[in-house]
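A further point concerns the way the authors explain their paired sequence and structure data. Since the whole study asks how a given chain folds, the encoding of that fold should be made plain. A single example would do more here than another paragraph of explanation. An entry of this sort, consisting of the sequence and the corresponding backbone structure tokens, reads as follows:

_____
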Amino acid sequence: MNFDQLKQLPGSRIKALVGLVPALLGELLFQVVPELERRRRARLPQRAERKRHWGVNEGSPREVTPLAKVLMTLIYLRHHVSPEVGGVRVGYSADTSENACHEVVPVLRDLLPAQKGEADKKWRRSEPPGTPAEVDLVSVESFETPVRRPSGPERQRWSYSGKKKRHTLKTQLATAQAGEILTISAGQRGPKAELKLYEQTPWPEPLTDKPRLGDKAYVSSEHPELTTPHKKPKGGQLTEEQVRENKPLSSRRVRVEPAIRRVKGFRLLRAD
């Protein structure tokens, strides 16, 4: 699939294929493709098997374009299929698709900050940045993603979640009340408690003094900035007053769920 073929697809097909609307895909390609080429040119002269000096326009033409590498990677992240499927969809082999993922994912990680403030400063300089005053409350939530059973007992203990009865990785999201993602912390140990993950996650300066809202997994007297619902005592029940107080908190906290749904649109982070 080349760029001309991609442009002929309707917007709904493009989003279904790579998880991004055409405008966002265009912005992503505008940033990622030049960086892929820059890293390639910096990497080729340093190859150990090279016997002569390398020039920019020397050698045979490349068989795989940077656009194809990005598309194969996005297809893998979006659908969580074998590399062969993404390769066939774009017109390359499974090995080529897998190599492309290993090359593109580090670039995506470096170019796309996990915090909204850093992303705005880096890529939206021409637009007025969002001010911290616009965020009146931060909702915190986490979810677990099943992964394959690792080899070796130490790695298995690292990722085994007794709660899910399987090996998982945990992702924590912080969103504004409008549902906009403010920070994301992915790839954490599945068995790590939500409260410990919250304590170990660095918060950007504009959000350090903002009140936060979490579910029952974040209940702690050591964090007065966190508002959490009443937790049912062991062997007991909540009072009617506590149930009434929990309802408005649930109505406000549920706004983080659409953000989780957007993230899980990439099946790499889903269980099914």
